[in-house]
Amino acid sequence: MRVLAAMSGGVDSAVASARAVDAGHDVVGVHLALSRMPGTLRTGSRGCCTIEDSMDAQRAASALGIPYYVWDFSARFKEDVVDDFVAEYQAGRTPNPCMRCNERIKFAALLEKALALGFDAVCTGHYASIVTGADGARELHRSAAWAKDQSYVLGVLTAEQLEHAMFPLGATPSKDEVRAEAAARGLTVAQKPDSYDICFIPDGDTRGWLADRVGAEPGSVVERDGTVVGEHEGATGYTVGQRRGLHLGRPAPDGKPRFVLEIRPKDNTVVVGPKEALDVRSMAGSRFTWAGTAPVDPSEPFACDVQIRAHADPVPATARVADGELVIDVDEPLSGVAPGQTAVVYVGTRVLGQCTIDRTVSAVPAAV
Q1: How confident is the model at residue 345 (pLDDT cuts 50, 70, 90)?
Q2: Does the keyword Signal feature in the UniProt annotation (predicted)?
């Protein structure tokens, strides 16, 4: 099988590529250049697609004896990930750029080009497993290493994309084992630190980065009943669940801290309230997909677990499709759910599907 190995320059993708070679596949390595301005991406241990990462990937490919190329996806990355990130914040939502990158770059643009060039599959270093279900269709499942499981960020994959995906690390019990294997193979990335945070915000200052691009207009911070309790320096600098940096002029009557409950971009208002008001009992999104075979009748409520962040614990829920939305009702109130986040639905270890959250229903009435 002809396999295109996406090599980020990290240890996971290097070992995944090595395992694809060991399995007898015809493997070609490719690194994605996501910016024509290297200084706009994080470097060292805090990057994922920088020039030094490209060099690390090239050294790994050379050690494995496979061809290696760098593909320029910078224009697509800016449009589908960076511009989307800005637009979501302008709309008062909290986006996850890593989800968009997996969806639109690594498993849309990359896979599309790979298939056009005659490759059969794209191989990555994600910690997730693909299992063939009873109906013969491929299913996405959690990896064996729960602490390193990355099935959440792959929840955006469709059935067609799963047909051409390969995750050689899915059954690996620990990251330490991957590093040990890399060292044994003589790969120089064996001890390279993991990447984290947003790659296109070099200094990690999301508020400042957004202010430079969309401006920062002062506005009111209000309680849920409309009472003005402070002023902000730009609504895009806040996210649901935030506590620090509110600088409120009026303390709450009960003396307890307030948290950001909602961002209202139309009137440039930030809504705050007590921590318990962050609890939601339901969430819904019209932008949903199924990872593999969909439920026979998705309009019929079905039991599941839902996960709303990459490192969050899954919680029991009931889901259904109604009026063009995937509606998810949690068994117990879930705190800090924001529009723009991705809700990934699991049945056991299987990723059933996902939606981008458009709206939530509070578990606490506004009068409280």
Answers
A1: very high
A2: no
- Provide the mean pLDDT of the chain: 89
Amino acid letter for position 44:
G
The secondary structure of 193-241 as a DSSP string is PPP-S-TT-TTS-HHHHHHHHH----EEEE-TTS-EEEEES-GGG--TT
Quickly state the pLDDT bin for 16 (edges 50, 70, 90): very high
Residues 6+ apart with CB under 8 A from 133: 139, 292, 293
Specify the CATH number of the domain 216-273.
2.30.30.280
One fold for 2-125+168-184 and 216-273:
no
Mean pLDDT score, 262-284? 91
304 contacts 346 by C-beta, under 8 angstroms? yes
Look up tokens 């630190």; give the residue: 193
Q: Given a cut of 60, is residue 45 above it in pLDDT?
A: no
Question: pLDDT by residue (tens digit) across 83-106?
Answer: 999 999 888 888 888 889 988 998
Q: Which positions are annotated as active-site residues?
A: 101, 199
What's the pLDDT tens digit per position in 227-239? 898 888 888 888 8
Cβ–Cβ < 8 Å for 120, 1: yes
- pLDDT for res 68: 98
- For residue 361, the cross-strand partners are 282
**What's domain 2-125+168-184's superfamily in CATH?**
HUPs (3.40.50.620)
pLDDT digits (tens, 9 = 90+) for 152-184: 999 999 999 999 999 999 989 888 999 999 999
278-362, CATH topology level: Elongation Factor Tu (Ef-tu); domain 3 (2.40.30)
C-alpha to C-alpha distance for 154 and 227, rounded to whole angstroms:
42
Domain ranges of the chain: 2-125+168-184, 216-273, 278-362
What is the C-alpha to C-alpha distance for residues 313 and 315, in angstroms, rounded to an integer?
6
How many angstroms separate the most distant Cα atoms in the chain?
Answer: 68
Strand-strand pairing, 165-166 and 121-123: parallel
Helices 175-184 and 11-22, packing angle to 10 deg: 70
Q: Which residues are annotated as a binding site for ATP?
A: 6-13, 32, 125
Cα separation, 114 vs 2, in Å, equals: 10
Q: With beta carbons less than 8 A apart as the criterion, state whether 292 and 133 touch.
A: yes
